[in-house]
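ok trying again, last paste got cut off:
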Amino acid sequence: MTLPIDPARLDEDDIGTKRTRLEMGHEEAVEHVRRVFTDAGFGIPVEFSPSELLNEKVDADRDPYYVLGACNPAIADRTLDATDNRTGGLFPCNVVVWEEEPGMQTVYHVSMRARRRSVRGAVTMGHHTFDVDDADKLEETAWRYRFLSAEELLWAVSPSPEHTVADLGSGTGFYTDDVAPHAGEVYAVDVQKAMHEYYQEKGAPANVELVTTGIEDLPFETDAIDAAFSTMTYHEFASDDALAAIRRALGPAGRLAIVDWTATGTGENGPPLDERYTADAAADALRDHGFGIEHEATRSETFLLVATVE
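nice, full thing came through this time. structure:
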């Protein structure tokens, strides 16, 4: 039996996580995963059972859960260089096997590049991205429009049929779909490939191109974008590198609209308060990167910024 996660094809250019299921007993699955990763050139310098440890120490009554600390030496070496040695705090690159039910095991692997991005993000804020497993929630129309209507977004972005627009953190394409009919070309940018797979299955408009990358690594030519927008994702990517990349990609008088959860909100919806920014803090960061603020508003849970390239 082969493992659907192919460790021989995992490298630092992979982004995000990989997950699969194995129909076998827990101990058999652990041995199978260990053998497949070892055969692909990974060492297993560390392994342990959190379930056994927790069940013994705090009577947790957890189902079988096992961690294999898999490490590919070549990838680990390059990743240390790419993060000024900080990624070592996340070594080894763990593969987890847990029992969903007797005879059914989940295997979960976090890519090295996802770990590298988390370290890079920690230098600024280090916040998580939206969990792909909860992607259906991003398609709940009433809930999404409660915090940002299509009409308000279109006013903020002000797209035209001649414009090339980028949705920064497009997720399932919920708001991309609102902008696409009013623009010439739209790039749906998201760091999570699984979000794009969801969008593809849902059906992306013909003028939407899916771009899998972090905002700090935008692949667009200088001045290639007429407008860009971020809906509830600014707190996920806010950094000097990301804002510099946006500024470079936007053309003269390029427009940037940001709607995000505000740090002055209640925290009942959206990310934790300590992961958010205020409108003032976000506006100051934009000014530092060559933007002028045309509109700034703070509501009970969100803020809206409309900025243009100066």
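cool. Residues 87 and 115 are 7 Å apart (CA to CA). The first strand starts at residue 17 and ends at 22.
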